[in-house]
């Protein structure tokens, strides 16, 4: 029983602490890539931009993709949703309890809070419109929106993947006319924990 208990503690420790170390290393690499130049086109698993949420002291690089390997590096942009600077819904998922838990405090965000995204296309400022819990099958959260929007999602309650905690924000900075409107396919389902 002692060996079994120690093995369980080691597994939990690795999941909570070890994955955070891996994500911190990945973030260092992503920031170096972004310091050199923001990519003009999304590369699966590659750095796409910077996400800043002052309310929860989040300042991280985010990547293109929501597969397990992508989200192990940090928050991930749902392929098929709008890119920052384009009309529509920019959707980003992130872990809440592992891999550095970038969205651990997402439940502390309030309507009116500011969120900033920086990419090759510029800096985009959003104001939170609402925060709510939805079913994990609520794919409407990634659907195209009429107004330029940002949707952040993570699992809730913590340590489960039963539901999704969703933050919807509306862009408050001007969009360049050259990037308005585009056809966007349905995104892939993220692997969140």
Name of the CATH class: Mainly Beta
Into how many domains do the coordinates divide?
A: 1
Cα end-to-end separation: 28 Å
Spatially, the strands of the biggest sheet line up as 1-2-3-4-7-8-6-5
Quick check: average pLDDT? 84
What would you report as the Rg, rounded to the nearest angstrom?
Answer: 17 Å
Q: Count the E strands.
A: 8
Poorly predicted parts: 175-187
The CATH architecture is Beta Barrel
Kindly report the CATH topology. Sortase, Chain: A
Main sheet makeup: 8 strands, mixed, barrel
The structure class reads: alpha+beta
Q: What is the subunit organization of this protein? A: single chain
Q: What general form does the structure show?
A: globular
Level of helix content?
Answer: 10-25%
| Beta-strand residue percentage | 25-35%
> Helix and strand succession?
HEEHEEEEEE
What's the CATH H-level homologous superfamily?
Answer: Sortase
Total DSSP helices: 2
What report would you give on this structure?
The protein is of the alpha+beta class. The protein has one domain (2-179): Beta Barrel (Sortase, Chain: A), CATH 2.40.260.10. It contains 2 helices and 8 strands. It has helices at 2-36, 68-71; strands spanning 47-53, 58-64, 76-77, 89-93, 114-119, 122-135, 149-156, 163-171. It has an 8-stranded mixed β-barrel with strand order 1-2-3-4-7-8-6-5. 39% of the residues are buried. Mean pLDDT is 84; it is low at 175-187.
């Amino acid at each position: 029983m002692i060996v079994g208990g120690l093995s369980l503690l080691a597994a939990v420790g690795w999941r909570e602490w070890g994955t955070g170390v891996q994500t911190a290393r990945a973030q260092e690499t992503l920031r170096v890539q972004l310091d050199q130049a923001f990519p003009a086109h999304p590369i699966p698993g590659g750095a796409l931009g910077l996400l800043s949420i002052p309310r929860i002291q989040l300042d991280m690089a985010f990547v293109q993709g929501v597969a397990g390997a992508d989200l192990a590096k940090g928050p991930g942009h749902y392929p098929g949703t709008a890119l920052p600077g384009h009309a529509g819904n920019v959707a980003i998922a992130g872990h809440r309890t592992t891999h550095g838990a970038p969205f651990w405090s997402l439940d502390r965000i309030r309507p009116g809070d500011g969120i900033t995204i920086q990419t090759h296309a510029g800096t985009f400022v959003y104001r939170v419109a609402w925060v709510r819990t939805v079913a994990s099958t609520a794919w409407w959260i990634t659907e195209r929106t009429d107004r330029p929007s940002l949707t952040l999602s993570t699992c809730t309650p913590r340590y489960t993947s039963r539901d999704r905690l969703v933050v919807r924000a509306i862009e408050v900075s001007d969009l360049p006319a050259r990037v308005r409107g585009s056809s966007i396919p349905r995104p892939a389902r993220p692997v969140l924990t």
